[in-house]
Amino acid sequence: MNKLVQNCTNRNIPEPMQREIRRRCGFGCVICGLPLYEYEHMLGWANVKRHVASEITLLCNFHHRERSGGLLPIENVMAADKAPFNLKSGVTKPYNFHFSGTEASVEIGSNTFIINTQIKNKTSQFIPLMIDGYSLIEFRFEDGQMLLNLIIFDEFNIPILQIKDNILMYSAYLWDIEFVAKKITIRTKSRVILIEIEFCPPDKIKILRGKMLCNGVEVAINKNDVSINKDLIIQGNTVRCSPVGILIGLNAINSPGTISYPYVSRYIR
How far apart, in whole angstroms, are the C-alpha atoms of residue 240 and residue 140? Predict the structure, then answer.
């Protein structure tokens, strides 16, 4: 059921309605799928001055400008709203992050991991978090490029968000994912955040809060600390020039982690 705000003078769309619109549109522009978008009142805000979920869609900046400039007919927008681009493929259109340089920094809660390839000679990989050989967070340095790789699993080990060599894609069928400015927030239900990540190109990312899951291991993150399966607590560390930060479970790369936790209990689902 659409929630209607009659004779509204506030252009801010209520958050529950924003979430309804994001989910209906597959978390991206309904025409091209880009996960950077604006909310578009298809009937024109100035004409209706109301918020009705079915009358609002998502357009990227390019298609929003085309629509505002009269180059994109409303009929095309309405047709795309009924069959959003991302829902056809099940994933969002790829988005390319702009990371570069020779130094990378990753903040995980109150812990910071930093690598400088000019200091650490021949470093081609920087893995702040690895579980059982899976690099959940990794920067790779190749041919003068700095490439971010990151994967978010759900509790059943199904990938729901992935960044591969700076290219972001995520499922169009999540309960909710929000990409605003530099921050991505994934929610599994109302007020329950799975993960919140801030991207700070050209050389930094911040895992602000939430959980990173893999193979029955839960890495819980908040601004104060990191806990592994509610057991080991890691807080307030700054680690420089170590290719591997937190290494949990199986060591598949034969490289020691600065913080190693090989014998870890596992949750069962």
Answer: 16
My answer on whether 145 and 248 are in the same domain is: yes
Domains identified in the chain, total number: 2
Q: Name, in order, each residue with C-beta under 8 angstroms of 47's C-beta and a sequence gap of 6 or more.
A: none
pLDDT in tens, the chain (269 residues): 455 454 566 788 999 999 999 999 999 999 999 999 999 999 988 888 899 999 999 999 999 999 999 999 999 999 999 999 999 999 999 999 999 999 999 999 999 999 998 876 666 899 999 999 999 999 999 888 999 999 999 999 999 999 999 999 999 999 999 999 999 999 999 999 999 999 999 999 999 999 999 999 999 999 999 999 998 999 999 999 999 999 999 888 878 899 999 999 888 76
Its pTM stands at 0.91
DSSP 8-state code for residue 171: B
Domain residue limits at 49:
15-89
Q: Tell me, yes or no, whether 45 and 157 share the same domain.
A: no
- Contact between residue 264 and residue 218 where contact means Cβ atoms under 8 Å apart: no
Q: Please, what sign has the CA dihedral across residues 171, 89, 29, 165?
A: positive
* 27 and 42 inside one domain: yes
Q: At 205, which amino acid appears?
A: I
Residues 123 and 78 in one domain: no
DSSP 28: S
- Region of 252 please: left (phi>0), alpha (psi -120 to 50) or beta: alpha
